[in-house]
Design brief:
heterodimer; A: 326 residues; alpha+beta; Uridine Diphospho-n-acetylenolpyruvylglucosamine Reductase, domain 3; Enolase-like, domain 1; 5-stranded antiparallel beta sheet; 4-stranded antiparallel beta sheet; globular; disordered C terminus; B: 813 residues; Aldehyde Oxidoreductase, domain 3; Aldehyde Oxidoreductase, domain 4; 3 domains; 8-stranded mixed beta sheet; 5-stranded mixed beta sheet
């Protein structure tokens, strides 16, 4: 039994905005995988809930005429993972969504909730950060879009106002076209897990697939909010994918941009180790998905004992999963 | 044997899969009241006062009781058979609610309300005033000279008990052995190593939470339906807690969703009964949340093992010593039994040439109470022995498998203290089987001198485990069999089904002994202390062995009674049976029997000539001339016995079996792992448990039992650990998100092998299997990591963070 004062099923976004405006203590519920857990713990007992769970327009995933992709805030993690547009253009978002909790949670939990919860560990958030996605909000004062990197104010805090509903996320074509990327979630186990660290690396190569034109690096749990490592991204610009230096450069620059903390869950030292190691591994995976011949992608150097990387035949490469041009 | 050894489908499979099997919460009446417990928010101190005025105003609140309202009776909670010897009685150190707060989350008050929401709201409004003392969370702090005794009424300090055990002569000490060895072998030929190994406090994580509901029946019986492993013991302890005679308490145990030893303790049944009594006997339900289960019920003991080993450089194990410090938490529960058990196996598992010495110290601390958990101190013990053995081999350079074959406990072993024998010895056969399966020798060679950041390793661990608790404690079990009109029967065991498959194996045993087919045996799964014969319950690895003996003895008695009635029918077919509808059937049977055995008309028919097989009265196999030995169906006999005007008899049997035997089971685990050093990630590539558990009653269930245990072992080795903040005593990760049990995605394919030796002390050649599978997995993985990286991990669980730290220290990353 949950201690809930009232439950209002909003007909549409405007109706939800109105309901929130009329009750300053009401909170939104969509999938409920965060809200109900808090209620079960006794946090916010006696709350009034405004449900946006059944608003169909919030679940839509689509592409507009400019090629920008919008992901409805109410799309469940499984919706995102299985959506054809996502699979074709920004598969990394679907892969990240597929690491959340377990199947039951992924079937009801939403991307909107994942981001609006304001948690640094949200698996889809760091991917959206790496894409400079815009958060689409609708409130009493109308609609607005906020770049996701400005959306977070601190742990559990966002700029979303009480009477604003997050309707979705916009990912611009320029942010995904010709990019390939990889997300690594590091947890203490392989499922039913909140990330100890989440790492996103994405790359866009030169036409000859030999040089890095642009790179993206973002983390979850490397600071109070997701972080974007722009110095690390700059450090790779123009570098050859065959140069083993890329890994150390990427990781080292990244380490200057993060601020993980020590807690009983993991020490700062351990998280820094993960940040360094995962940024290298995610980068290598992103490069392998880029369409470049795998044997042109440098191995990650592992000190004096050497690398264990194996060069595969080019024919076996590019087996899908990467992001391709729209 | 026909029924024993078969892979019979679980008798409760359909009910459990379809959801029709009814558990405690499924049985509660409508309109039941709901209770919730108020837990202390300090770890050490005293409740000075409560203010419940605001809480009482919450609509729906019926009653609030506090530690100042409960009976002044201290009671024990351990699921041990009660002892009539004062020295062996469990420690009575807690009350239903406690004014003296001894750990964070101690039970200090409770609310009864119309629904759970009202109860939860009221809980938040109760104000408590405490007198606070410094929390003493660790063994070290609790043993400090100035530490406050947590139970000053029964112990002057925080030591619950200290025991010292030795092998190798009455005056053996490790120190003496070292100087003797120096003289005998020369200082340059021997080695001594000192190591400290740590094991974590873990949670049982049974699926069904501890839940009970209680009411007072019209006849005054305090009736509690509870998810427990030990109904008869709960009855006695609840009576002690309430200060009423045992007969006034009735415990009903329906299907339960696992216990793993947590429910081998009296948990909240006394409080639940008390709450019902406080509201005029109305039914009250008390369901403990997962978070409460983790922090407020029982845990596995965190035991620190300070180990020493003396050995020759050519690999002869001369002597070992263990000092074990068990953190028992706030209440005694099973008291010293677990740490002492840990010490016993430490000394038993290897045949130290000179001897071994064990010191076991069990300590009260202001932290969650440790109690029974699957394998009862032995996962800790075997963590110590098996880490130590591989660390010895790291010094000598010997193959750890060879070392174990040479130095492990021997055939014919009898524990000098308890006199428990190793009757059928399969330990070395298990090691050989595991070695072969995992391709030990090839892999040890292949994994030498690895480079790179990802490495493979293979490791092993062995164990031994006693089946029941005799002669340390009482072993008694009862069984009742009741024949029905159609020749089927009810099988009523005092032993409990807790998910392990007890009902199924008892059905097979009853069938084996009586000759009634499994399909015609209805086992009564529910134990009701007013109806069910006495058994101490599901714990140790005892039921298949101890309660199995009761089942066998009862089956023999029932069968004898059936055959006596059959003899009567065959002997009296003319005078009495002739009027019944079975006249022709019985006459024919009699004639065929006489013909087959060549008996003349004036000779008596003796019961030795007949038998019961597959629901039929048949001619005895011995001496029968006919191949079709069937005489008549058991249903013919049953119908006659019930309704005969001449001799009506309800054929039943009931026995108690007082078991005065015990035997060691043993086995091993071999694991092949891959370790990704920069991430501290261990992946089990292949793993096998090999068990020496005697004859398997149901091989499929036995395999499943091993799978479950191995999964627990994986969690123990790699991820599970209940963390307590040392400053405040607060649990840090007391929920299933932060407490990491392995998921299906973390579990490799688990392989199981058995060495089946017929143990004559077991009712059907069987011995312990319930607990052993959980024992050897963690140290096998640890030793595989050692093989892969050269890094010896001394603390479980071997989390990624601990591994990364160790690899950095070893300059591997």
């Amino acid at each position: 039994m949950f201690d809930i004062k009232s439950f209002y099923e909003a007909a549409d976004v405007n109706d939800a905005v109105r309901a929130l405006r009329e009750d300053k203590d009401a909170i939104l519920i969509s999938g409920g995988t965060d809200v109900l857990i808090k209620l079960r713990e006794g946090k916010g007992a006696g709350v009034a809930l405004v449900s946006i769970h059944n608003i169909r327009e919030l679940k839509e995933i689509g592409m507009d005429s400019c090629g920008d992709i919008t992901v409805g805030a109410g799309a469940s993690f499984s919706d995102v993972t299985n959506n054809e547009i996502i699979k074709k253009y920004i598969n990394i978002l679907g892969e990240a969504a597929d690491t959340v909790g377990g199947p039951q949670i992924r079937n009801v939990g939403t991307v909107g909730g994942n981001v609006c919860n304001g948690a640094t560990s949200a698996d889809t958030a760091s991917v959206l950060w790496s894409m400079d996605a815009d958060v689409m909000l609708c409130g009493s004062e109308g609609r607005r879009e906020v770049p996701i990197c400005e959306f977070y104010e601190g742990p559990g805090k966002t700029v979303r106002r009480h009477d604003e509903v997050c309707t979705g996320f916009r990912i611009r074509k320029s942010e995904y076209e010709d990019f390939s990327g990889h997300y690594i979630k590091f947890g203490k186990r392989n499922a039913m897990e909140i990330a100890t660290l989440g790492c996103v690396a994405r790359v866009k190569l030169s036409e000859d697939k030999k040089f890095i034109e642009e790179a993206r690096l973002a983390f979850g749990v490397a600071g109070p909010t997701p972080v974007r490592c722009r110095k690390a991204e700059e450090a790779l610009r123009g570098m050859s994918i065959s140069d083993p230096e890329i890994y150390e450069r990427f990781a080292e620059a990244g380490l200057t941009e993060v601020d993980p903390r020590s807690s009983w869950r993991a020490s700062k030292e351990f998280r820094l180790q993960l940040i360094s190691e995962l940024s290298k591994r995610a980068l290598r995976e992103a490069l392998l998905k880029s369409g470049a011949a795998p044997c042109t992608v440098a191995d990650i150097p592992y000190g004096p004992e050497g690398s264990t990387g194996i060069c595969e035949e080019p024919a076996k490469a590019a087996t899908g999963g990467g992001e391709i041009s729209a | 044997m026909k029924s024993v050894g078969r892979e019979l489908t679980r008798v409760d499979a359909y009910g459990k899969v379809t959801g029709e099997a009814r558990y405690t919460a499924d049985l509660e009446p409508k309109g039941i009241l709901h209770a919730k417990v108020l837990h202390s928010e300090i770890a050490n101190g005293k409740v000075k006062s409560f203010d419940i005025a605001e809480a009482m105003k919450v609509p729906g609140v019926v009653k609030i009781v506090t530690c100042f309202d409960t009976p002044d009776c201290q009671f024990p909670t351990a699921g041990h058979p009660w002892s009539v010897e004062k020295a062996h009685q469990d420690i009575c150190d807690r009350k239903i609610l406690n004014e003296r707060v001894r750990f964070y989350s101690d039970d200090i008050a409770a609310v009864v309300a119309e629904d759970e929401v009202a109860a939860a709201r009221a809980l938040k409004l109760i104000k408590v005033e405490y007198e606070e003392y410094e929390p003493i969370v660790t063994v070290e702090k609790a043993l400090d000279a100035g530490a406050t005794p947590l139970h000053e009424d029964i112990r002057k300090d925080n030591v619950i008990a200290h025991s010292h055990m030795i092998m190798g002569g009455p005056d053996f000490t490790f120190e003496k052995a070292v100087s003797e060895a120096e003289a005998r072998f020369g200082k340059e030929n021997i080695e001594v190593i000192d190591r400290t190994y740590d094991t974590p406090r873990i949670s049982h994580c049974h699926l069904e939470l501890p839940v009970s509901w209680a009411y007072v029946d019209a006849n005054g019986k305090i009736t509690i339906t509870s998810s427990t492993q030990i109904p008869h013991i709960v009855r006695l302890c609840t009576a002690m807690a309430l200060g009423v005679p045992a007969g006034r308490v009735r415990i009903i145990k329906p299907y339960i969703g696992g216990g793993f030893g947590n429910k081998q303790d009296v948990l909240y049944e006394p409080l639940n009964a008390f709450l019902s009594m406080q509201v005029g006997g109305r039914p009250v339900r008390l369901e403990i949340s997962r978070e409460e289960t983790i922090s407020c019920t029982r845990t596995r003991h965190a035991i620190e093992g300070r180990c020493r080993a003396l050995f020759t450089k050519d690999g002869r194990l001369l002597a070992r010593k263990l000092e074990a410090y068990a953190n028992n938490g706030a209440y005694a529960s099973h008291g010293h039994a677990i740490c002492a058990n840990c010490g016993t196996v430490f000394k038993d598992l290897y045949a130290d040439e000179m001897g071994s010495e064990v010191d076991c110290i069990t300590v009260y601390t202001s932290s969650p109470t440790a109690g029974a958990m699957r394998a009862y101190g032995i996962p800790q013990s075997v963590w110590f022995t098996e880490c130590l053995t591989d660390d010895i081999c790291a010094v000598t350079g010997e193959d750890p498998c060879d070392f174990r074959m040479k130095n492990c406990m021997r055939e014919g072993f009898v524990d000098p203290g308890t006199k428990i024998p190793f009757i059928t010895y399969g330990l070395k056969k298990c090691i050989e089987e595991g070695r072969r399966y995992i391709k030990w020798d090839e892999k040890r060679a292949a994994y030498k001198d690895q480079k790179g950041h990802i490495r493979r390793g293979v490791g092993m661990a062995i164990f031994c485990y006693k089946t029941g608790v005799y002669p340390i404690s009482l072993e008694t079990a009862s069984c009742r069999m009741v024949l029905n009109q159609d020749g089927s029967m009810q099988l009523v065991m005092g032993a409990t089904e807790i998910g392990q498959g007890a009902d199924t194996v008892f059905t097979q045993m009853a069938s084996e002994t009586t000759g009634i087919s499994c399909g015609n045996i209805y086992i009564v799964s529910t134990q009701d202390t007013d109806v069910t014969p006495f058994d101490t319950g599901a714990y140790a690895s005892r039921q298949t062995y101890v309660s199995g003996k009761a089942c066998k003895k009862c089956g023999e008695l029932l069968k004898a009674r059936i055959l006596e009635y059959a003899r009567y029918m065959l002997a009296n077919e003319v005078s009495d049976i002739s009027k019944t509808v079975y006249a022709e059937t019985v006459r024919e049977a009699k004639n065929r029997l006489k013909e087959s055995f060549g008996i003349t008309d004036d000779e008596d028919i003796k019961t030795e000539l007949i038998d019961l097989e597959e629901d039929c009265i048949v001619m005895a196999k011995e001496g029968a001339a006919f191949s079709d030995r069937r005489l008549f169906a058991l249903s013919v006999l049953a119908d006659t016995a019930f309704h005969s005007l001449d001799r009506s008899q309800h054929i039943t049997a009931e026995v108690t079996s007082h078991c005065k035997e015990n035997t060691f089971a043993s086995g091993c685990c071999f694991a092949d792992i891959e370790v990704d050093m920069p991430l501290g990630k261990v992946t089990v590539k292949d793993i096998v448990n090999v068990h020496d558990s005697g004859i398997l009653i149901n091989p499929k269930l036995a395999e499943a039992q091993v799978h479950g245990g191995m999964s627990m072992g994986l969690g123990y080795g790699l991820s599970e650990e209940l963390l307590i903040d040392e400053e405040t005593g607060r649990p840090l990760n007391g929920n299933l998100l932060d407490y990491k049990i392995p998921t299906a995605m973390d579990t490799p394919k688990l392989h199981v092998k058995f060495i089946q030796l017929n143990d004559p002390s077991g009712p059907y050649g069987n011995k312990a299997l319930g607990e052993p599978p959980a024992i050897p997995v963690a140290p096998a993985i640890r030793n595989a990591i050692l093989n892969a990286t050269g890094v010896a991990m001394n603390e479980a669980p071997m989390t990624a963070e601990r591994l990364v730290k160790a690899f950095k220290e070893a300059k591997l990353i």
